[in-house]
């Protein structure tokens, strides 16, 4: 009866989602927008907001009207990422339905992989593994390395959960090497889980080293989403190094972000090791509230893993010391329940991953070795090398294009947030002046620079330091020193930045200027060549002129 009600609820949710899609009509203002624009707006807006819903529906409607299976699947994937929990699986099934109709192995495999990831996030590991294995069957028939490594990553997660740490380490190392130049977030995730595995096998030094590298790489890649997770990992690692106060401090620091991410699994583990640290410090009363938090998550989410069984053993031990038989009995029942859940899950997961993934991987590896041995001919080697080079070149170009668009967007928003830009900077020490130059001379040159900037004399073509020195009736060496000290730049960058700031203000204020070519803009700013203008513009703004003008047109039609 319960299953029947759940099935009816699932159908109702699916019908509700379908009805919303069917009744939708894309607004005229969004008809000409491309998928990248709609996707960026979905990411930028708050989940569940009316505006986000408009862009989600517009993306999917556009894909359906163009009968583009890949983009339809992307549309449903957007819903998977940004919908309430009770609808995520509905949209994941929609992805699978469209993928199957396309008969494209990569699309089908990717859809099943997405559904598995939803289940894994819900800590329903049985269902997650089922979908990962189905995904692997389809993806293994393709040459899509990115998807192949996504499967490896998710299988490695299951192996970590099953405590097959050495095997998980091998897979996570592969993923770290592959994703380093392909996907920053996947690279950092792989490194984080690699560190956790090192902790589990007792290599605490290598765990700390991996966590430190993860934090450094996050800064290098300008991606701080994993920062709290590396700190959380290091906090647990510090517990095993017997640095209990440090463990409490680090884990406590990491938990707000983890709770905000609704990551109840890492939240539970964090509470457990804070409790264990207080217990090790002989403060059981301070440990008990954290152990109860772990129990609360178990009640709410049915989440448990092998090391968390000790949570109940310590609670029972505490109440035994208090001679509280009723509380002891209650938590003994909880311990038995958690142990039963683990036994059931582990038996199923362990059996399937050994039978259906590991055996298949071994056979696949054996077959690959045979093929390589059979193909050791010079011409075949050259052919494979060329194809591989072309494949990764295309992947790199696609990746660079996506990455650049993201960087350009960020730089554009930063530029728009600034007030009227100026190349003028405060001197490091305006009171002491510049050593070796008379203060009256400095004051005179500064006044002339201000008048030079105000009158826009910098727009003169082929302006050189020698010409400006002559105009100021000054000394070339003095002029360069004064510009560097009070404007923070050398002469060439100072002039170029003034010209670019002038062009930026023109583009913002004058719609006519937005239609100028780079050659015309270079002429307007007084650059001697188009190349010098485009180089100076990119150096100043970190984006091409075409991108900047297009975004200005969107922001101020």
TrEMBL record:
SMART domains: HTH_ARAC. The chain crosses the membrane at residues 381-399. It comes from the Bacteria. This is AraC-type DNA-binding protein. Residues 459-551 form the HTH araC/xylS-type domain. It comes from Flavobacterium xinjiangense. Keywords: Coiled coil, DNA-binding, Membrane, Signal, Transmembrane, Transmembrane helix. InterPro entries: HTH_AraC, TPR-like_helical_dom_sf. Residues 442-469 form a coiled coil. Residues 1-19 form the signal peptide. One of its GO terms (molecular function) is DNA-binding transcription factor activity. The lineage of its organism: Bacteria, Pseudomonadati, Bacteroidota, Flavobacteriia, Flavobacteriales.
């Amino acid at each position: 009866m319960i299953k029947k009600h759940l099935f009816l609820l699932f159908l109702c949710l699916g019908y509700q989602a379908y009805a919303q899609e069917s009744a939708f009509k894309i607004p005229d203002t969004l008809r000409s927008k491309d998928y990248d624009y709609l996707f960026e707006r979905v990411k930028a807006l708050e989940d569940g907001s009316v505006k986000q819903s408009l862009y989600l529906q517009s993306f999917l409607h556009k894909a359906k009207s163009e009968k583009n299976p890949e983009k339809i699947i992307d549309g449903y994937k957007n819903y998977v990422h940004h919908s309430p929990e009770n609808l995520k699986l509905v949209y994941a099934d929609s992805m699978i339905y469209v993928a199957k109709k396309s008969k494209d192995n990569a699309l089908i495999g990717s859809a099943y992989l997405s559904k598995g990831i939803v289940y894994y996030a819900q800590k329903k590991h049985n269902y997650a593994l089922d979908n990962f294995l189905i995904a692997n069957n389809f993806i293994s028939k393709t040459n899509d390395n990115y998807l192949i490594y996504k499967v490896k990553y998710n299988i490695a997660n299951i192996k970590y959960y099953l405590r097959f740490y050495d095997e998980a380490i091998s897979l996570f190392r592969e993923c770290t090497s592959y994703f380093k130049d392909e996907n920053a977030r996947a690279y950092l995730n792989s490194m984080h889980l690699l560190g956790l595995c090192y902790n589990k096998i007792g290599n605490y030094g290598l765990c700390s080293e991996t966590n430190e590298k993860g934090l450094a790489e996050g800064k290098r890649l300008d991606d701080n989403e994993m920062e709290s997770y590396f700190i959380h990992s290091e906090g647990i690692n510090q517990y095993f190094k017997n640095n209990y106060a440090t463990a409490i401090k680090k884990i406590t620091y990491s938990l707000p972000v983890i709770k905000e991410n609704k990551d109840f699994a890492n939240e539970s583990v964090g509470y457990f090791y804070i409790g264990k640290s207080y217990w090790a410090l002989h403060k059981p009363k301070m440990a008990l509230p954290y152990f109860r938090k772990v129990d609360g998550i178990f009640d709410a989410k049915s989440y448990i893993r092998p090391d968390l069984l000790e949570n109940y053993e310590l609670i029972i031990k505490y109440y035994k010391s208090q001679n509280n038989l009723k509380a002891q009995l209650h938590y003994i029942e909880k311990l038995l329940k958690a142990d039963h859940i683990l036994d059931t899950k582990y038996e199923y997961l362990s059996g399937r991953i050994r039978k259906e993934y590991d055996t298949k991987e071994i056979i696949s590896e054996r077959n690959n070795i045979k093929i390589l041995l059979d193909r050791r001919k010079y011409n075949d080697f050259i052919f494979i090398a060329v194809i591989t080079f072309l494949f990764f070149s295309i992947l790199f170009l696609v990746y660079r294009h996506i990455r650049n668009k993201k960087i350009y967007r960020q730089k554009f928003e930063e530029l728009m947030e600034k007030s009227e830009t100026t190349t003028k900077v405060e001197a490091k020490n305006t009171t002491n002046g510049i050593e070796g130059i008379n203060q009256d001379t400095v004051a005179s040159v500064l006044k002339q620079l201000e008048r030079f900037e105000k009158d826009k004399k910098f727009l003169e073509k082929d302006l050189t330091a020698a010409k400006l020195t002559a105009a100021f009736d000054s000394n070339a060496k003095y002029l360069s020193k004064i510009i560097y000290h009070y404007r923070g730049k050398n002469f060439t960058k100072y002039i170029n930045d003034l010209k670019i700031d002038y062009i930026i203000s023109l583009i913002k204020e004058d719609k006519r200027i937005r239609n100028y070519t780079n050659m015309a803009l270079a002429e307007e700013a007084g650059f001697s060549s188009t190349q010098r203008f485009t180089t100076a513009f990119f150096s100043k703004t970190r984006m091409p002129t075409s991108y900047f003008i297009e975004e200005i047109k969107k922001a101020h039609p």
